[in-house]
Amino acid sequence: MTAIFRREFVSYFTSPIGYVFLAIFYCAAGFFFTLSSIQQGTTELNTVFSMMMFVLIVLIPILTMRTFSEEKKNKTEQCLLTAPVTLGAIVFGKFLAAFLVYAMGVLITLVFAVVVAAISTPDWLLVFGNILGLILLGSAFISVGVFVSSLTENQVVSAVLSFAIMVILYLFSAIASIIPVDFIARIFTSLSFLDRYNGFTYGSFDLSNILFFVSVTAAFLFFTVRVLEKRRWS
Amino acid sequence: MIEVRNLSKHFGDKKAVDGISFTANDGEILGFLGPNGAGKSTTMNILTGYISSTEGEAIIDGNDILKNPVKAKASIGYLPEQPPLYMDMTVKEYLNFIYDLKKCTLPRNTHIADICRLVKIDNVYKRVIKNLSKGYKQRVGLAQALVGNPNVLILDEPTVGLDPSQIIEIRTLIKKLGRNHTVVLSSHILSEVQAICDKIVVINQGRIVADDTAENLSSSLSGEHKLSVKIDGPSKEVKELIESIPGVKSVTLIAERESYSEFSIESDENTDIRRELFSRMAGRNWYIIELKTSELSLEDIFLRLTMGEKIELKGGKRQ
Ligand SMILES: Nc1ncnc2c1ncn2[C@@H]1O[C@H](COP(=O)(O)OP(=O)(O)O)[C@@H](O)[C@H]1O
Ligand SMILES: [Mg+2]
Questions:
Q1: CATH 3.40.190.10: does it fit domain B224-293?
Q2: In this complex, is the C-beta atom of A77 within 8 Å of any C-beta atom belonging to chain B?
């Protein structure tokens, strides 16, 4: 697993993808920070964090689009799948690499908090709640992206499909509001990434929300393993 | 050691591999010979755990590839049809990655250096794989298979796309490796398996049509014994004399030259007429200039075997 993780992480920075991802991420985060905090003169960072969800929906597909697609296209997956490692280790190694690149992006928000701290005292609990939320939301999205990339050998299809799925996940609470049947609406609400993430931006460490994102991450990584497994049998 | 029993793989309705069985022992090079689409790559992909079989089992050094994949894979080095190279890495980075991936315990630097020397890629060690020639890429692919010194080597058409001198080099290398590894090698080139392999499995349309040593294959299938001989002497009388040898079924004059005549002789399976032929010619002071058996080459066998298959199939359709 470490071998796959290391190769994958390094390859983000031998190709432009890692740089492009981080550059756009920093720009977007900086832009929203300037807009909300500095211009409005507030020390509250939660507007920045709620806007970040859109940024993720656009950027994560770029980060994950080639994870398995490229391996399949170049037949390099043959070398991974015939090596003495389990499918779980392959998937997790790749996930971890994307996650680490993403975490490097998220770290920038800590810088914002420090900038705010220079002027006044930010609500540190709120800041850490937000960062935790962003990390968890990102990890769920990354595992969705990794999963989608295992379905196709075309990177563009992979990126577009991940984007579409993330938009739909984002819209769950909106969908819930137009569904007349009460219990179905409640299912959608409980699966709403937006609602659960917003919980964090208000600084609430709701354990169920934490578990939700962790489970979504685990579930999609598991689906990815199943896809790879299934492909061998087809 | 590799044991394959009754292996099948279906892609939808298509039976890419259809109930094949064979064994490759330690220190043996087994050649997998068949035309394109015969099911060679599919079989190799099953042996290495890349895809699963529909039926049957493959056992690598005592470990079933489906039941005990990690252990089985640890004793296999695989060079797929298209070498699985990460184009953006240097040879050095790539081989080190493979070393980590396979969880090798051999001393890293000396082991990798040994392999590079063996497959002659030490001069491109620091180059990016993308920029290497096809021959070098193939060799890096072979190096990758050798990392970890696995007991079993599975090589899918290892010489495809190489130029003749590279082909000879790789063949020599494979022969050398065959001394202390179990090697399975696929090819659609007859002379190649003939030159390298101890044992040949001929496969066509997913089925084994022959499985034997190279020599046994040609002698068991040739059936009739044919000689081709060039004799310096009066052709008509020579022909009559040959015909009088017991066991000779037919003699055909193929060519008549000023200094010799060429005949093709067909004899009984159980009689070797060569000694008798020699003494009779010598008795008349006629000279044998050339004498060779024209046993079926594997090429002919292959043609026959696969033709047989096709005829059967046609027969099946007619019913
Ligand atoms: N993934 C696949 N899906 C459907 N058919 C396949 C697949 N892989 C191979 N085949 C078919 O199986 C047959 C055997 O292929 P292959 O093992 O690649 O042959 P070889 O390596 O001997 O040239 C071919 O007819 C090929 O078209
Ligand atoms: Mg093939």
A1: no
A2: yes
